[in-house]
Amino acid sequence: MTQPWTHIPIMVEKIADFLLRDPDGIYIDGTLGLGGHTHYFLSRLSPQARVFGFDKDEEALRLAQERIADNRLVAFHASYTQAPKIIRQAGLPGVNGILLDLGLSSYQLDNPARGFSIMHNGPLDMRFDLSSPLSAADIVNTWPLQELERILKDFGEERQANKIALAIMRARKEAPLQTTEDLKKVVEQVLPRHGKNHPATQTFQALRIACNAELETVQKALQLLPELLLPGGRAAILTFHSLEDRLVKNCFKQLAEQEAWQLITKHPLAPDYQEIRQNRRARSAKLRVIERIK
Ligand SMILES: C[S@@+](CC[C@H](N)C(=O)[O-])C[C@H]1O[C@@H](n2cnc3c(N)ncnc32)[C@H](O)[C@@H]1O
What we know:
By secondary structure, the protein is α/β, with parallel strands linked by helices. It folds into two domains: 12-107 and 214-292, Vaccinia Virus protein VP39 (Rossmann fold); 133-211, Putative methyltransferase TM0872, insert domain (DNA polymerase, domain 1, Orthogonal Bundle), CATH 1.10.150. The protein is 44% helix and 15% strand. It is built from 13 helices and seven strands. It has helices spanning 12-19, 36-44, 58-68, 83-89, 106-109, 136-142, 145-156, 161-174, 180-190, 201-211, 214-228, 242-256, 273-278; strands at 26-29, 50-55, 73-77, 95-101, 229-239, 261-263, 286-292. The chain has a seven-stranded mixed sheet, with helices on both faces. Helix 7 packs across helix 8 (161-174), helix 7 (145-156) crosses helix 10 and helix 11 (214-228) runs parallel beside helix 12. The N and C termini lie far apart (47 Å). Bound molecules: S-adenosylmethionine. The site of S-adenosylmethionine (SAM) has 22 residues, from helix 2 and strand 2.
């Protein structure tokens, strides 16, 4: 039977080779998604192993649990930043490995109702967690000009941030922006189309990051690594844009200046040509791995 979802896990074998050093270990998949990585990890782990899976997206979590159906997976509808509390509550001193596969899954991107995609019209939503109060529509319709300009610059690296922010302000005076199509049209009015990317691509990225407080959350998670990882444990982080990768790179560099930590990947690793050919979404992935050695 064809499954109603698809998301191809990226660099899955390589990540498993780096992370799964104790077959009986306890692991965290901080971004369970549809469980692609965890599903494979469990196939390489013993019956004693456990994976604590986290996702902000309740629907994805439910699908992952259904698909994996394995009592070695303990799943939580929570941000990965809640992991220390949950690991402590489970009476564990820490974990042997952590995976963060940042960003969004194809399951979210391909679903027009979630409002993430520039390709499909849908409500301007973009929340990973549908119980969170702030949607992308709230941002574009209520935030002041300076804030819109700031997120477009800082999270979208958009050079025309001011132009786009002003266009949003003008448009919302007429009527609130409600759909992804509304937002695309506003950006198209001020930025000509050229090249293969739609001119609103960076605007969509900025809004998604702002709406889910993505960079603050990643930064917080990085600070939690010393609290979570046992000696000999490793963290593997997959990023999909330079803003996230920079945070990971800087944090790992600082940790590696301490005796207790060692960089496992001196430079980020990327999927090979074959993987990118089979999965276009792998093309911007970068993997960094660090070990707590004592
Ligand atoms: C790229 S997908 C993960 C895909 C997964 N590795 C797989 O193979 O199916 C990223 C997932 O992280 C989730 N997510 C984003 N931020 C999160 C956070 N702070 N805490 C927990 N989950 C988060 C998203 O909802 C999404 O499902």
